[in-house]
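thought: fold this chain, then report.
action: predict
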Amino acid sequence: MRVVIKVVAAVLAGMFALLPPAVAGESATVKAPLQEIAAGELPAQAQETIALIRKGGPYPHERDGIVFGNFEKLLPLKERGYYREYTVRTPGTKGRGARRIVAGRGGELYYTDDHYQSFRRIREP
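observation:
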């Protein structure tokens, strides 16, 4: 019986070690702050998208303005519906491509050129 308990304990300990820190009960690692990029350093198409967002449209893509879920948790955590996403046209690409601007309800903007794998906060003058 003791051998069985030790084996079960060892198996559970091994499984527990595979869990991400927050699930395993350890403190989650602190994320580094988002890098920033000046709006003027963005591609011209991203600058055009920012102008459309600030103007309230019209937007060229049917899905522009949909809720961005932040499932990757790379942006500051907010309630669902806080963020909206907009397509940044990519010349030579069919469809929407990988570039987006995500806008927060507070007016903050984020740019991704790798389909949500990374973001940079946009600094506007």
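thought: worth noting. Residues 15-29 have pLDDT under 50 and may be disordered.
final: tokens above.
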